[in-house]
Amino acid sequence: MWYYCEVAVTKSIGGDGSPLKYKRVPSADLKSSRQGRHHELMAGILNDLVTLPIGSAIQIPLNEVGGLSVAKLRSAVMRATAKKGISIESSSDKKNFYIWKSKAK
């Protein structure tokens, strides 16, 4: 639901004196986060990774990742694990993508 504030200003003018190009809305009414298009995939991978013992890897079939390239999958996994503070390594072949926890350095 959108609510607009009524302000007693006759003209909306920017810092340089020119009219504003875009409408202003209260930021309190806006969503503050979003779920990316691969949210469910990353949530499943992170869930499996948390319980993964050292010395084991997760094997993710590339034909089950919704057409993601290996590079985009690796990038998404790296972002998600870095956000959670999990250090990982990865590898891939023609059919699968593999990830495992890195040993503490």
SSE arrangement:
Blueprint: H1 39-50, E1 58-61, H2 70-84, E2 88-92, E3 96-101
Antiparallel strand pairs: 1-3, 2-3
What does this structure look like?
The protein is α+β, with helices and mostly antiparallel strands. Helix content is 26%, strand content 14%. It has a domain of 63 residues: 2-Layer Sandwich (Ribosomal Protein S8, Chain: A, domain 1). It has 2 helices and 3 strands; from the N terminus they run αβαββ. The protein has a 3-stranded antiparallel beta sheet with strand order 1-3-2, covered by helices on one side. Strand 2 and strand 3 form a beta hairpin. The longest helix has 15 residues. The model has no long low-confidence stretch (mean pLDDT 83).
The helix count comes to 2
The helix content, as a percent range, equals 25-40%
Output mean pLDDT: 83
What overall form do the CA principal axes indicate?
elongated
| Name given to the CATH architecture of one domain | 2-Layer Sandwich
Q: What is the CATH T-level topology of one domain?
A: Ribosomal Protein S8, Chain: A, domain 1
How many angstroms does the end-to-end distance come to? 50 Å
Question: Using only CA atoms, what is the Rg?
Answer: 22 Å
CATH class descriptor name of one domain: Alpha Beta
Content of β-strand: 5-15%
**Strand adjacency order, main sheet:** 1-3-2
What profile does the largest beta sheet have?
3 strands, antiparallel
Q: Catalogue the unreliable spans.
A: none
Q: Which oligomeric form is depicted?
A: single chain
Pattern of helices and strands? HEHEE
Structural class: alpha+beta
Number of strands: 3
